[in-house]
């Protein structure tokens, strides 16, 4: 798969994760760690898309945001 196709896939997933987190923003219904997980996932996928397109690097297989930055 080409980097642009892969980065688009990462961004589609990131968008879904962000929408899920936003839907869970009501603290009377959802705990912070629940919606926080989805925010972390959206950030991770966005960083991986960035690495593919702008840095022209294959993103590492990790969930570590510091490593991705």
Number of domains: 1
Strand tally, please? 0
Percent range for helical residues? 55-70%
Question: Which H/E pattern describes the elements?
Answer: HHH
Give me the number of helical elements.
3
Estimate the global geometry from the Cα principal axes. Answer: elongated
Biggest sheet statistics: none
Overall structural class, as computed from helix and strand content, comes to mainly alpha
Mean pLDDT across every amino acid position: 91
**Strand-residue proportion:** under 5%
- CA gyration radius, whole angstroms: 13 Å
Provide the low-confidence segments as ranges.
Answer: none
How many angstroms separate the termini?
23 Å
Summarize the structure.
The protein has 69 residues and is an all-alpha fold. The chain has three helices and no strands.
Task: Tell me about this structure.
The protein has helices at 3-23, 32-53, 65-68. With 69 residues, it is mostly helical. It is elongated and about 40 Å long. The relative contact order is 0.18. It has one domain (3-68).
């Amino acid at each position: 798969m080409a980097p642009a196709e892969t980065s688009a896939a990462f961004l589609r997933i990131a968008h879904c994760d962000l929408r899920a987190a936003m839907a869970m923003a009501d603290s009377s219904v959802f705990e912070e760690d629940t919606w926080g997980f989805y925010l972390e996932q959206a950030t991770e996928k966005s960083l991986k898309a960035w690495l593919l397109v702008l840095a022209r690097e294959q993103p590492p297989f990790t969930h570590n945001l510091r490593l991705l930055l």
